[in-house]
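--- STAGE predict ---
source: upstream dedup step, 1 unique chain passed
mode: sequence only
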Amino acid sequence: MNYKKTYVPHNGYTPLCTIGECSLKNLEFGIIELTNGQNLTFETGDREVAFVILGGKASFRANGKDFGTLGVRRNVFENPKAECFYAPRRSTVEIHSPWNVKIAVCATPVDQDSEPQAIRQADVRVSRLGVKPWERDTSFIVDGSTNARKLTVGEAYITPGNWAGFPPHKHDVDAMPAEGVLEEIYYFLFDPQQGFGVQCLYTSDGEIDEAYRVKNDELVEFPRGYHTTVGAPGYNTYFLWLMAGDHQGFYRSNDPEHAWVGAVENLIKKQ
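--- STAGE serialize ---
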């Protein structure tokens, strides 16, 4: 199976991963692009949905309530803190673009009600993870501190030529609290745009063993297996990451063959 997909820029809403039509059972993903003055209505159905503003501005209304205008950057490389609108299931979301806007639509089925929420820059935290040459800045936009019930969403910026998510890790076995079952998607952008990275996805039994060259506006689905990423030297590598499954949060295990790298990281940080 090919776990990589490519987004071709398009006005309106473009679904890219739909449950029943992709490898995932708990995650859906798409992109909204609107121009100056354009409107779009989105029905969440039985999904909770995070609308992450990648670039531009948009105003949001949900079930008749106005949540104001969100979006503080022209593109993802201008600022590492996104703004986002969270909508629970059974919501009618009205989106208006006063300019141009590109929005990542992250969704998962839920069986609980919640409340809509405008997530501002002040609500987003950023951490530097790893050390060179496996260093990146990671933001946390949607998690257990928000109104979301299952979604966890953030952004990662890889130091040029570095790896991210190393040692390779997975979250496909119910062994809580050490590891939980969580599906994931990475959606990539690069600066300059002709940049690329390599996304690895593999299982210990070799059933899955993929290394994708990922370019601008491409994504990779992780239904299971270990995964790790590397960005090309000279290029800023960005990916939006979204997770959903049986548990909300980070419950993962490292590939035991490479777990020793984590000890090296701790030693470097102590120096």
